[in-house]
Amino acid sequence: MKSQISSALSDFFFEYETPRQVLVRNRRVGVVCRLIQLGVLAYIIGWVFIYEKGYQSSDTAVSSVFSKMKGVGYTNVNGAERVWDVADYVFPPQGDSSFVVMTNYIITEGQKMGTCPEVGEICSYMFLFQGQLTGVCVPANKTCEVLAWCPVENDHNIPDPPLLMSAENYTLFIKNSVTFPLFQVTRSNLVEGIDSSYIRKCLHDPEKAPLCPIFKLGDIVKLSGFNFETIAKEGGAIGIVVDWTCNLDVDIKHCKPKYNFHGLYGNPGETDKARASVGYNFRYAKHYLDGSVQKRTLLKVFGIRIDIIVQSLARKFDIIPTLTAIGSGVGIFGVATVVCDLVLLYLLPKREFYKNMKFKYTDTQAQVSSTIAYELRT
């Protein structure tokens, strides 16, 4: 027993086992094996390393966006002239990444709390959201009387053409900074060469000035696939995507933003198929006192909602994902061996011959007899 333990320990520490290999001269099997290996190699180089950048680690950015509109609008409605500046047509005014630029409106002036007829064609006791019904019909108007801010708004006729067509010439300035925490890299869209003198005279153009952060509102609408007059009438939404896709293995100055424009909704005759609710609008009121009477001016605003969205992905060489990709690729090479073994052992006419060559069979009974004879001798 002692000798068996000693022999087992000796075999464990001082012997090396290697798989038995059989060289098979078969053209079909050889071609299949090389084709599979070539495919695996193409996958590792083309997909894992070149396309998916398997040798790099990646990180997304923490970003901040600041925006500023500039421009002046002019309207002349029934002889009433008015100039609209940024404080009048941008909502909210704080310079957020999401805001609305007013392009059309319906104004109801001098409203005060009281009773008045609804705007409608027939007297019915249906709640039309214009006020609280008093239960009185107004024969002259054939409508119901309501307790509300009077006179009630009539928004059945939207101004066409839009009142603020001059909004097409407004400009938008975008200031964006991103930080990639993993790589401790911070970048701004005011990259090298974008200084104060350049900003004063530049206007964004995808071909001539792709890095200029100043955009004409009409160009934004056009690049998003919309028609300005159509979207200005009833409003809509546009997404501006600031794309930061950076390869940090090269000089940091090559990490620059790209601007893309997407029409989200707004044109009923073009891309917007949701006919049940077309455009974008909201209401806001300006309250004031006329003597001792509280009054308000109500505006139904139609505008272009702009959402500035930052997308980011930075990559840099890292030895850990590189070794992981190489190791997984080497493991995939074993697929060729498995497939070729299946062909040899189960599909070819000489499969029994190949089985005998590949596997070495032992007789268990003979092995037991040999072990007993060895013990008797010792």
Automatic annotation (TrEMBL):
Residues at which ATP binds: K68, M69, K70, T171, N281, F282, R283, K300
GO cellular component terms, semicolon-separated: plasma membrane; postsynapse
Subcellular location(s) per record: Cell membrane; Membrane
Predominant location: membrane
Known catalytic reactions: Ca(2+)(in) = Ca(2+)(out)
PROSITE patterns in alphabetical order: P2X_RECEPTOR
Keyword vocabulary terms for this entry: ATP-binding, Cell membrane, Disulfide bond, Glycoprotein, Ion channel, Ion transport, Ligand-gated ion channel, Membrane, Nucleotide-binding, Receptor, Transmembrane, Transmembrane helix, Transport
InterPro entries: P2X_extracellular_dom_sf, P2X_purnocptor, P2X_receptor, P2X_RECEPTOR_CS
Transmembrane feature ranges: 29-50, 325-348
Lipid bilayer topology: Multi-pass membrane protein
Annotated family: Belongs to the P2X receptor family.
The protein's role, per its UniProt record: Receptor for ATP that acts as a ligand-gated ion channel.
Protein name according to UniProt: P2X purinoceptor
Source organism per UniProt: Sparus aurata
